[in-house]
Amino acid sequence: MRLYTNEDCMRYDFNIPLTFRHRILFERDVFAPGNPVLEELLEKRAGTKVFVLVEKALAEIDPELESKAVSKAREVLGGDSVASQVFVGGEDCKVDESVYNAMCDAIADAGIDRHSYVFAIGGGAFLDVAGFAAATVHRGVRLVRFPTTTLSQDDSGVGVKCGINKYGKKNFMGAFAVPYAVVNDFTFLHTQPEDIRRGGLVEAVKVALVKDAAFFAWLEDNVAGLNALRPPVLEEAVERSAVLHAKHIAEGGDPFESGSSRPLDFGHWAAHKMEQLSDFELSHAKAVSVGLALDCVYSVKKGLLAQADAERILKVLEGLQLPCWDDLLDQTNDEGRRTVLAGLEEFREHLGGQLTILLLKEPGVGVDVHEMDESLLEEAIAELRERVLQVA
Ligand SMILES: NC(=O)c1ccc[n+]([C@@H]2O[C@H](COP(=O)([O-])OP(=O)(O)OC[C@H]3O[C@@H](n4cnc5c(N)ncnc54)[C@H](O)[C@@H]3O)[C@@H](O)[C@H]2O)c1
Ligand SMILES: [Zn+2]
């Protein structure tokens, strides 16, 4: 549409409509011979190839995994246009560009074009790096994610973001890119170390708190089964959380986060800062748990959330053996300022625009605020410190 002219300037604005199909599957043993899920999922054309990226920790747990995934891709595509490689995962693979660069090299060597597929099998950190490689090679090739941790199945793997850390900052480089599909294979859940298997439930607690009071009540009722990592309850929590995350992305009106409000990042301003302060030794799950606890107690201090509701939330976190405190909350810089507070400005910078933090009014109901009161944050930190000392 021709909008505006004067002697020097003519302006034409065009709308570019884009719709993405976000396919999320829940399955077991997807690479088993005869399992039809991938056959039905993948669109095949002449020359379609697959490159399989496997996280090293998984290849060690199941030495057959890589060959099973390759055989399945061959079964689906026919021919031998399938290659694979194992890469290291965990947060270490995100801290610089080396794994990202190696993955790009490998995808390029395998001749993957924009109609071919990259399969990425691994935890949240691995998928972030593999996703960034897939999003940038040829400006984006088709990615099928196979998340293997609780956190990546119930949150990050069903999202539309990818990236690596840079300048010591979490996820500083990255992209928004909708994967071709996400296959949550529940069999992976049960091989994780127990603390990682349990820890990823923090994102289910988070999404319940900001989106779904009934789900939060279900988590409360099932906290013992979840703590015991009973497979059916764990799987139900993962599925409900994944669907809530995906629904928010698809229907929340801001899939690529152009606005300032980011409800799925509840509790994350402090979490991301603590991860950075710990040199990424503190896991995302544990950092988010502390961040949630802090923002819940702060919500009470701000007069938004009832004390009894905050107590329910802290009990769920504690019931899942998730921390409500980390000593990093007490770390100060040379000027005596609490270092975690710098996370607020970094969070604002990452989002752009006005600082926007989601606080809670009640489980399932959030409210955006645009400033945080440092003296109330001090009180909230003191209360959490006191609580952990009492528990100890
Ligand atoms: N892109 C997003 O939208 C988004 C959202 C939330 C979190 N994240 C990112 O996700 C990362 C955290 O992901 P995570 O919690 O999955 O941790 P992770 O990827 O670091 O994995 C944790 C550990 O589990 C191992 N592992 C993975 N799957 C396993 C399995 N099935 N059995 C045994 N061991 C296994 C890994 O090797 C690693 O040592 C963080 O970097 C975080 O920033 C991204
Ligand atoms: Zn998170």
Please write out the topology.
Layout: E1 2-5, E2 10-12, E3 23-27, H1 37-41, E4 50-55, H2 56-61, H3 65-77, E5 82-87, H4 98-109, E6 117-122, H5 124-136, E7 142-147, H6 150-154, E8 161-166, E9 169-176, E10 181-185, H7 194-199, H8 201-211, H9 213-221, H10 223-227, H11 231-251, H12 268-277, H13 284-301, H14 307-319, H15 342-351, E11 357-362, E12 365-369, H16 374-391
Parallel strand pairs: 3-10, 4-5, 4-6, 6-7, 7-10
Antiparallel strand pairs: 1-2, 8-9, 11-12
Helix pairs in contact: 4-5, 8-9, 8-11, 8-13, 12-13, 12-15, 13-14, 13-16
Bound molecules: nicotinamide-adenine-dinucleotide and zinc ion.
Short description:
Helices cover 45% and strands 17% of the residues.
Textual characterization of the structure:
There is one protein chain. This protein has helices at 37-41, 56-61, 65-77, 98-109, 124-136, 150-154, 194-199, 201-211, 213-221, 223-227, 231-251, 268-277, 284-301, 307-319, 342-351, 374-391, and strands at 2-5, 10-12, 23-27, 50-55, 82-87, 117-122, 142-147, 161-166, 169-176, 181-185, 357-362, 365-369. The strands form four sheets. Strands 3-10-7-6-4-5 form a six-stranded parallel β-sheet, with helices on both faces. The protein has 392 residues and is of the alpha/beta class. The chain has two domains: 23-191, 3-Layer(aba) Sandwich (Rossmann fold); 194-391, Up-down Bundle (Dehydroquinate synthase-like, alpha domain). 45% of the residues lie in helices and 17% in strands. A hairpin with a 4-residue loop joins strand 1 and strand 2 (10-12). Helix 13 (284-301) packs across helix 16 (374-391). Bound molecules: nicotinamide-adenine-dinucleotide and zinc ion. Nicotinamide-adenine-dinucleotide binds at residues 55, 57-58, 61, 89-91, 94, 122-126, 128, 148-149, 151-152, 155-156, 159, 161-162, 188, 191-192, 196, 200, 284-285.
